[in-house]
Design brief:
The chain is mainly α. Helix content is 74%, strand content 3%. It has 23 helices and two strands. A two-stranded antiparallel ribbon has the order 1-2. Strand 1 and strand 2 form a beta hairpin. Helix 4 packs parallel to helix 11. It is globular, with a radius of gyration of 22 Å.
Length: 493
Amino acid sequence: MYSAHALSVAIWLPIIGGIAVLMTGGDSNAHWARRLSLLFSLAAFAATVPLYYGFDPHTASMQFVENHAWIPAFHIDYHIGIDGISLPLVLLTSFTTVIVVVAGWEVIQTRVAQYMAAFLVMEGLMIGVFSSMDAILFYVFWEAMLIPMFVIIGIWGGPNRVYATVKFFLYTLLGSVLMLVALLYLYFKGGSSFDIQSFYSIKLNMTEQVLIFFAFLLAFAVKVPMWPVHTWLPDAHVEAPTGGSVVLAAIMLKMGAYGFLRFTLPILPDASHALAGLMVALSLIAIVYISLVALVQEDMKKLIAYSSIAHMGFVTLGFFIFNAQGMEGGLVEMISHGFVSGALFLCVGVLYDRMHTRQIRDYGGVAARMPVFASLMMLFVMANVGLPGTSGFVGEFLVILGSFQVNGWYAALAATILITGAAYTLWLYKRVIFGNIVSNHVAALRDINVREFSFLALLAVAVLVMGLWPRPFLEVMHVSVNHLLVEASASKL
């Protein structure tokens, strides 16, 4: 009985929890808001775990499917399900939300209930995006999840939060409008159905495919974000509170990449192959150029934000070289980046909570005062570089391997991130952690407490487990990836 509604529980439990947290009232009841948020986030994570253990990795069919009429007049259904591509992203979402709630436990002192509730509601909406099998349901979740993030940055963000939120909203809204137009065209072209899988059988000529491709491209490229529509991300990260940066990097960026897999490749295979060169070029620009931009950053958050753009370039590169190694590598990179980038933003948050500055020049000698923190941050830095044995290595290796089979130059250019990534990440670590103690503020630093150690240690375990034993992640997605490659190779002309 539970399995029949397991996915709905995963979607709606955190949303209901967010509403319950809001009902705790003002800051006089902040302790209840925190406890209730932790309870619901843990319950929501527990609700997603059976999805993994009940998942059959030997079939590409959608599982845990629910289909109920929602707006019958327009054939819009509450139709949800997951496959091996969406399951890891659902688990990443529920896991990250627990981390964010714990990370904000003592840091957020004003409007605590609203802050926690925003993350819980956003969790349910993001799981809804990864689970939707109806195009309009997907669009509703896609747009609705922007609202909690808009509120999080706008209320708890930095001094330029209004500029960052408006820029974030305008970029994502413009792309989403074009996606809606494309979905409506497919609805009328395919016999008045919004079922996403029914779109896969629609015959489209090349002109139609190319136009819809670019409509989807703008929507998904902004969300990834790909060069040159990436400029909103560093501003959003700098102004967002730590929890907002974690969710933005760990989960929201993955939705654009997920859109390519769920819509672009299977619906528009001919256009996808014809324009693969463009997508590869944009991905390689992100990997090479944006890595160089990261080298000159003086704000720790901006550096990690640009690093995220470069690593997401690996993801889109893996998708558009059309082989199993590249696509599975891209998916693994998505999950790994969720762990590593989230951990790095949390590390910056730990330092910011003590020093109230993110400027690299204000730090130096932190290892002398915070040895435990320095050790954990070193692991995440190594994972960001792609050190073997960490999660960062697995995805990058598979993408480079897949790229080499298509074009050696693709692999060579992609592999430059192993040099530039090491340069900007290790240089950041050296300037912040090592050297002499530069100020009395650094001399007064205290090492991480039990709460901070708990969420950093959880992420450290995730990074090591995925790096040393990637098989459980690859097994889940393998059949679904192969099925998608077949769909993406079948001409619709």
